[in-house]
């Protein structure tokens, strides 16, 4: 490590691996490709299926007005997500960098647009989402202890923080451990949903179909758009595997397969789960329930109804792990492009995990646990999330035009990104008109990235005292957590 700064590419530092071979041996410090196709499927499925489908799938029904119309929206939202995921398969195999949409926007539209995306995701959306899911986990774990009232707020926050800390340790220790946790808890949440679906099939055989009608369907354009907004939010996470593509074995083969399998599976499971709910619960009961799956279980499962809250807790625990696993790679990718502190580019020398990025994501999430209005904050930036995904899909036709010679192992028909972009505009612009207050707050959050970009990224000639303090802090943190930069092979 140089005396003037942190360990740079190609330099030997105090935490370089001890050579094990003779002269000419080299050791590369980098993220390793440890994830199989099955791991990839469980990352996507586990990231998509969180707490929403169990707790309150009411947003779609609220805006469609009828059960049959809501089922059509659930199906269309799944197909829409598949189209976007298909476009991401080409982008991911063409630009094989961790960071997904951030990397694609950086390559296509440059650093400013990429930083706006990075800022919204890293500083607000991801840590807030993780805090919400961790809180849901803690509430359902504590529910048996407090059956007749809500769990104490402080206890819920403390348990949520413990959940994040445990998963942070696992993600810092070994990627294989993190993917194993993702596998196990994804299977658990799928088991819970299959139990609900089987109960629904039984109800269908018993001719409980009275709620499946188009009565009271809402045909207003704004309501339809808002219903799709709610449906698409439930599918959020289909692009998460692209964030960790550097750690996926044979990405050209496994990325599109994982996307196709997981998106199809989730769409079928979501639609069948909603059908199961409506075989037993009326639309009024669904809209009035804070936990639809629990209400469904109480109605049908008798003394075994307690199993559903347990499965919800398992589901949310896995979802927290999926968010942490993928989001930390977004921090890492941003730092590699020089748009976040250098320490976030570094990798733990013995475990080969992006430990600083994992710790940063965890600390931000626990900071948001102190806020009582996180859900509103997520709603404010929800439209920006989908708009930025639309911009990422726009990268596909744009790069076809500007860089036609880029290698494209997968090449999708241009009709797919065009349809996706048009649909994205529909589900973002209409809700902006229907909900101007939320849109206004979301725009303020987006614009907050502008002074940060020009003050810390674009401004290169910063005062010497500032640069020295950054270097000293980076060196100190390197020594504490034993990390080095993603380096070229170290000659020994």
What is the percentage of strand-forming residues?
Answer: under 5%
Described by the principal axes of the CA atoms, the overall outline is globular
First CA to last CA: what distance? 15 Å
Task: Indicate the structural class.
Answer: mainly alpha
Radius of gyration: 23 Å
Order of helices and strands: EHHHHHHHHHHHHHEHHHHHHEE
Task: Report what the structure shows.
There is one protein chain. The strands form 2 sheets. A two-stranded antiparallel ribbon has the order 1-4. With 492 residues, it is mainly α. 68% of the residues lie in helices and 2% in strands. α5 runs antiparallel to α6 and α15 crosses α17.
Question: Which SSEs are present, and which pair or pack?
Answer:
Blueprint: E1 26-27, H1 37-48, H2 52-55, H3 59-64, H4 67-94, H5 101-109, H6 111-142, H7 153-173, H8 175-205, H9 221-234, H10 251-280, H11 283-288, H12 292-300, H13 307-336, E2 346-348, H14 355-368, H15 374-402, H16 415-434, H17 436-447, H18 449-458, H19 464-481, E3 483-485, E4 490-491
Antiparallel strand pairs: 1-4, 2-3
Can you summarize this structure?
The protein is an all-alpha fold. Helices cover 68% and strands 2% of the residues. The chain has a two-stranded antiparallel ribbon with strand order 1-4. A two-stranded antiparallel sheet has the order 2-3.
List keywords for this structure.
492 residues; mainly alpha; two-stranded antiparallel sheet; 4 strands; 2% strand; disordered N terminus; disordered C terminus
